[in-house]
Amino acid sequence: MNKFVKFGLPALTLALLGAGWWLGLAWAPPDREMGEVQRIMYVHVPLQWMAMMAMFINFVAAVTYLMRQSWKTDAMAEASAEVGLLFGTLGMITGSIWGRPTWGVYWSWDPRLTSEAILLVSYTGYLVLRRFVEDPEKRAVWSAVVAIIGAINLPIVWFSVRWWRSLHQVQSSPKTVDPQMVLPLRVSAFGMLALLILFMVHRYRIALAERKAEVALPEALPTDDPALRASHSSKVA
Amino acid sequence: MTSLTSLMLLAQVGSGRLQGGWGYVWACYGISVAAFVLYSASLWARRPRATDSKE
């Protein structure tokens, strides 16, 4: 494995997340109205950003797989869906905890929360589908289709706070936020990005190794070579 | 009239700042760190073994 991935990336992740969270918890001022509770932003918002990014990568990998079939893009789709689901679930949990002191409830059927819940359920379904289908080629094609359908919800989640103004606040911008809050948020977001890349690299290696083990019988299953793949696909069925 | 309505609405919102709440903050960071540690452990447990990592 690449030395940077093995040692450099974990060190970078710890340094950025440690610095970002320290800045957010100890250096940034409390919010004018939410007080100390607002410090949840430095973990909740980066989690949600990275979840959306991972799910978008899943969409791109799914489209790429359908255009040019390769176990590498299938492995990337699997890795991004699992890591995206982890970050999205944590984003929802932290958001729910944030909601209790500010909204008075852990959960509300607000458009943002509801669309996010549907998103998480659809990616859970995507991963369940991958577990249930044994044929790697059928699994890759079917899950790619499900991933593309599931990705329709991504812009709905993102724009829901603008389309239906309700309980969840709209996205802030550096112009509307205190600079002392912007810096910790940015550092935390880059730390979370490093963690996302780290998790995805390792999960990708696992998925690719599984695909290679499954296609170890070259006569039984297709390969990455389009010509060989075409000739093998007829034998799979 | 509009400004009066706005003022009445603002009066319902109230003013002031939430007091305390560090428990919620620590819960969020703690749950996230715990989940990351558990997921890292799951990745380590599922890592490709030497025999099947001929990439």
Automatic annotation (TrEMBL), chain A:
InterPro entries cross-referenced by the UniProt entry: Cyt_c_assembly (IPR002541), Cyt_c_biogenesis_CcmC (IPR003557), Cyt_c_biogenesis_CcsA/CcmC (IPR045062)
GO molecular function, one term: heme binding
Superkingdom of the organism of origin: Bacteria
Membrane association type: Multi-pass membrane protein
Transmembrane segments: 50-67, 79-99, 111-129, 141-161, 181-201
The keyword Transmembrane is annotated on this UniProt entry: yes
Record bears the keyword Ribonucleoprotein: no
GO biological process: cytochrome complex assembly
A GO CC term assigned to this protein in UniProt: plasma membrane
Domain Cytochrome c assembly protein, chain residue ranges per copy: 33-168
Keywords tagged on the record: Cytochrome c-type biogenesis, Membrane, Transmembrane, Transmembrane helix
Subcellular location(s) per record: Membrane
Function: Required for the export of heme to the periplasm for the biogenesis of c-type cytochromes.
Family membership noted in the UniProt record: Belongs to the CcmC/CycZ/HelC family.
Protein name, UniProt field: Heme exporter protein C
Species assigned in the record: Corallococcus interemptor
Automatic annotation (TrEMBL), chain B:
Membrane-spanning segments: 26-45
Keywords per UniProt: Membrane, Transmembrane, Transmembrane helix
Membrane recorded as keyword: yes
Protein name as catalogued: Heme exporter protein D
Organism (species): Corallococcus macrosporus
